Amino acid sequence: MDLEPLDKGLGHYASLIETVMGKSIKKTPGAGAAGGLGFGLLVLGGQIQSGAKIVSEAINLEKYIQVSDWVITGEGKSDFQSAFGKVPVHVAKIARKNNIHTILLSGSLGKGYQELYEYFISCHSISSGPMSLEQSMQNAAQLLNDSSRNIARLIRMINR
């Protein structure tokens, strides 16, 4: 299926809605490309808020980070898109504000993950070699344990 005509059509539709409303909202962060779900909610008077921010405030995450020596966070797959509002970068920003070093540990590292070095001291994948997504998910607990142990050993050496 060729998505380009659909994308153009949604973009045109969003422009028509903006014309009728008399205001520009499709470039609002979180509105979605070419007038996605976020755009629709904004048209109806909704507000877009960061889920990572809401949850971190609800659990008082900063309080826990402030008394930490290191923060290790992650997600299923980290890539260049992770910098655009994903939880690990939000956590890293809180840690940076409190002068705490942060490490990224994810299921895999995708295209452009190097851009995340702006937020993390190091970025790691739990994969121990070539394997399918299914194999990785089936062995996630062991892979995560092994990778965490390796990172902990490095931190222990650094903190000596």
Automatic annotation (TrEMBL):
Keywords: Kinase, Transferase. It comes from the Bacteria. The keyword Heme does not apply. Signal peptide: none annotated. The keyword Transferase applies. Transmembrane segments: none annotated. Belongs to the glycerate kinase type-1 family. This is Glycerate kinase. It comes from Metabacillus bambusae.
